[in-house]
Amino acid sequence: MGQKQWASRVGFLLAAAGSAIGLGNLWKFPYLMGRNGGFTFLIVYLAFVIVLGLPVMMLEMGLGRYSGRDPVQTYKMVHPKAKIVGIFGVIAPFIILSYYSVIGGWIIKYIISYAATFAAPADFNAFISSNETILWHLLFMVITIAICCMGVGGIEKASKVMMPALFVLLIIVMIRSVTLEGSSEGLRFIFEPKGGFTLSSINAALGQVFYSLSLCMGITITYGSYLPKNEDIPKSCGIIAGMDTALAICAGVAIFPAVFVFGLEPGQGPSLIFGTLPNVFNAMPGGVAFAIAFFILVFFAAVTSAIALFEVVVSFAIDSWGWSRKKSVAIMGALIFFLGIPSALSFGALGDVTILNYSVFDFIGMITDNILLPVGGILMCYFIGWKFDINKLADEIEVGSAGFKVRKLWISCIRYVAPILLVIVTLSGFISVYNTIVG
Ligand code: TRP
Fold first, then answer.
1. In angstroms, what is the span from residue 217 Cα to ligand 1's centroid?
2. How far is residue 356 from each of residues 350, 352, 366, measured CA to CA in Å?
3. Which residue's alpha carbon is at the smallest distance from atom 9 of ligand 1?
4. Measured between alpha carbons, how far is residue 98 from residues 15, 69, 138, 284 in Å?
């Protein structure tokens, strides 16, 4: 308790947008769009952001401000049995950060490599399979710990510098990419309405809405708990979701035209950023400068998401266990670092190890993406919609918001629409896990 509040509205918005804008926007969304029907996918994604993402974000933010506590204490207040939702909401960020930080470490390595040798590490696969990655993972965790050690103020300051810088750098890289000759093919890959939109695209869109907006993970509750009463929650959520979506689209415009101009295969995930893009930068006039700009931008996106993930865990230890902030960041930071080591080694020393047919890295991701988040989300809608006086929450959202005119709609969304969509995501996730395990 005794937690501080955001010093400024801009600081809060940038910190919340910083949590949402992360690797998911940069390496996943543009690819999903390209592979799932282009413009059609974008429209469906936007529709889900509006009917699912925004209402759930408002719920979490309102809930956080209502209780002023960490997610576990918050859900305990909702209903004695709902504590489990809060626990899920703390464990998920704990696990996600452990591998997010491994990738964060790779990013630092790339920035340093470009700055020192004007080139990416010679061989992407050799680098990620080396044990050196543990050191970079450690460095990334130390940076995250240092920022969270300073509390809300530190998070706010870091976000105020990193987020605007990220936007500027992205615009620069975007302009470079679309002014390359022949860039239109890449733009067509992402934007052109085309085939490929199937049932599984709907699922991909739904899952991406949750992941990209950082929902069901206690983050929005935690950041909401530092919010003053005069803050307009629906408006803030609209701004955050808008920035997140705009940035995902811009990332596509920055990345894919260049990939196509240089005749490379569009892909997603780590290999897109660390394997494919360095080749693009190599082939481009002035490529080194753009490479450095690009990796710094990715670094800022990763750090502002990492501090959000870490703050959930830290605020939990402070609030629920009564630890001091220093003790929480030190102990939790160390635990997350150790948990990340198997993920760091998953591409090298532990490369042959599989758990239920998943690599170590993918297994960790599966637990959070396919189990903790969707199940946590369903339980959240159940407890808030049906076991708690949801009107109290609607009242909370109304405080500071003259514009909350859709109260009834919002309530039916939390009671019916969101849980139904979440059940679909959960079941389809289970099916894909099952297929991997027996596959
Ligand atoms: N939204 C982040 C991204 O797009 C990833 C993420 C998921 C996240 N859940 C989170 C970040 C919770 C911070 C907090 O990459």
1. 9
2. 15, 12, 11
3. 214
4. 20, 24, 10, 34
Determine if the pTM surpasses 0.85: yes
295 lines ligand 1 (CB under 6 A): no
Query: Which of the listed residues 27, 29, 61, 96 should we mutate to test ligand 1's pocket, taking the one with most ligand atoms within 8 A of CB?
Result: 96
Ligand 1 site, residue 86, Cβ cutoff 6 A: no
Asked whether residue 2 carries a pLDDT value surpassing 50, the answer given is: no
Q: Whose CA is nearest to atom 11 of ligand 1?
A: 305
Kindly tell me if the per-residue pLDDT of 231 is higher than 80. Answer: yes
For 30-67, the pLDDT digits (tens) are: 888 888 888 899 999 999 999 999 999 999 999 999 99
| pLDDT, mean of residues 88-104 | 94
Burial class (CB in 10 A: 0-12, 13-18, 19+), 123: exposed
Which positions ≥6 away from 124 have C-beta within 8 Å? 271, 274, 275, 278
Angle at 305 between CA 300 and CA 309, to 5 degrees: 145
Statement: residue 71 has pLDDT above 60: yes
Q: Report the length, in residues, of the chain.
A: 439
Q: Is 340 in the pocket of ligand 1 (CB under 6 A)?
A: no
Q: Is the CB of 22 under 6 A from ligand 1?
A: yes
219 ligand 1 Cβ < 6 A: yes
Q: How many other CB atoms are found less than 10 A from the CB of residue 431?
A: 12
Determine the distance separating the centroid of ligand 1 and the alpha carbon of 273, expressed in angstroms: 17
CB 209 within 8 A of CB 424: no
For residue 68, give the H/E element and its range: none
Whether pLDDT at 170 is above 80? yes
Q: What is the mean pLDDT of the chain?
A: 92
The CA distance from 191 to 293, in Å, is 25
Residue with tokens 């998401």: 305
The helix or strand, by DSSP H or E, that contains position 410, with its residue range, turns out to be helix 407-412
Distance 39 CA to ligand 1 centre (A): 24
